[in-house]
């Protein structure tokens, strides 16, 4: 084992060159990751493998002595995920080291067949362990990226817009599941506080179906908004959704509803003491009602 590590240190430049040549013949998308970065990754890995802490053996890749190698593999996997490489391409990066090492071992241990087979077996298992580790790290890194993107998309899918002073609207588009309903509620309540709005319009024109669960989510959001001092108006109730609500026996008696967002906006303006008037030759303007602030 010590002989193998010394062999790697003494031939580090040659191993690196042969490894990079092996990578050139392997299937790799050079438009995703450049040769310079691949060379730097290979150099770092090779340096760390060749110079482990004392008493570190190749037979146990999970030992503390190989922690720096595992950390470096994690860093490489993050880079590969960012570049869009596949898990197999990422693992192939390490597996390409095998034939290089096998060739070196054969040349150095030609006269000692037992030792040759042993070192090849150890090297084979060690490289496999590294490849498995970088594949697992790749999946973990990709899962984190996907989770972050889903969270960002969720935030973008629940925008709260300010229609007028004291009137906010939250257009909901797509399926409203439990996690998204929680995001809808948080976004709306936060907007009510930030804008000091007295009226909040939840528009479900873009919600394909409304079942009992979706209705419960909406009622909870409306109740929470009321507790914040805002009056909620539910708009965008299409005929099909109205029939579904009736068939399911969902009660919306305490909820002000309108079929269109424009109707809900007009109602909010009226209840806030404003009215829409149209001057001759001009577009409609909103004017405050006398005696109402």
Automatic annotation (TrEMBL):
Q: Which residues cross the membrane?
A: none
Question: What's the protein name?
Answer: STAS domain-containing protein
Q: Does the keyword Coiled coil apply?
A: no
Q: Which UniProt keywords apply?
A: Phosphoprotein
Q: Which residues form a coiled coil?
A: none
Q: Which InterPro entries match?
A: Bact_StressResp_Reg, RsbRD_N_dom, STAS_dom, STAS_dom_sf
The record places domain STAS at 157-268
- Species of provenance: Terriglobus albidus
């Amino acid at each position: 084992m010590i002989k193998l590590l010394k062999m790697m240190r003494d031939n580090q430049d040659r191993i690196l060159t042969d490894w990079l040549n092996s990578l050139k013949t392997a299937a790799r998308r050079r438009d995703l990751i450049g040769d310079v970065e691949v060379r730097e990754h290979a150099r770092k890995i090779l340096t760390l493998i060749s110079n482990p802490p004392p008493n570190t053996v190749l037979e146990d890749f999970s030992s503390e002595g190989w922690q720096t190698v595992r950390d470096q593999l994690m860093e490489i996997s993050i880079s590969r995920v960012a570049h869009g490489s596949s898990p197999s391409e990422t693992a192939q990066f390490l597996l390409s080291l095998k034939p290089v090492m096998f060739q070196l071992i054969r040349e150095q241990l030609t006269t000692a067949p037992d030792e040759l087979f042993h070192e090849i077996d150890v090297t084979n298992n060690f490289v496999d362990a590294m490849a498995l580790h970088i594949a697992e790290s790749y999946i973990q890194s990709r899962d984190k990226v996907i989770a972050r993107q889903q969270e960002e998309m969720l935030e973008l899918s629940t925008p709260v817009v300010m229609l007028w002073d004291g009137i906010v609207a939250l257009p909901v588009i797509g399926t409203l599941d439990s996690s998204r309903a929680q995001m809808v509620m948080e976004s709306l309540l936060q907007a009510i506080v930030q804008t000091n709005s007295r009226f909040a319009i939840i528009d479900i024109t873009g919600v394909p179906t409304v079942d009992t669960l979706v209705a419960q989510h909406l009622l909870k959001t409306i109740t929470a908004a009321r507790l914040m001092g805002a009056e909620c108006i539910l708009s965008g109730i299409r005929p099909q959704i109205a029939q579904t609500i009736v068939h399911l026996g969902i009660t919306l008696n305490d909820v002000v509803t309108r079929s269109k967002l424009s109707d809900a906006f007009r109602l909010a303006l009226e209840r806030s003491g404003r009215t829409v008037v149209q001057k001759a030759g001009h577009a409609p303007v909103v004017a405050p009602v006398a005696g109402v602030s």
